[in-house]
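name: query_chain
kind: protein
chains: 1
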Amino acid sequence: HHRGSETRFLVMRAYNYWDFPKGLMELGEAPIEAALREVLEETGQQELSFPWGTDYYTTSRYAGGKVAHYFLARTRTDKVRLGVNPTLGRPEHQEYRWVTAIEARQLLNERVYGALQWAFEKMTRGAARTEIERGDRFSGG
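structure:
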């Protein structure tokens, strides 16, 4: 999402953990189908475009062997509705924020930060590390 000329990334908080929207693939579902479904369920966002293609970033294994696949999509709205998970009876996330890459770097752990770097590099063709690292130095990170 763009706010003025600035690109913003949607991050969501579950307890003290910040991440991008994501979830489990259902039986027979392709990764892109799971991503679209999960984004709709968790955020209400349904008008996504994929101007950088539909390839994805895959994390290293974590939490008992799971991996996450992150896609890079664009939306024209910043409206988010935290969807209620029927199993939990409440939203999976307590908060969301639209943040710059530098702000995201301060919230994300190393595994998720890899996805941010990948996304930013796709968008800027290699300038990501320079801008994010400037923010790291500024924030003391």
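note: The radius of gyration is 15 Å.
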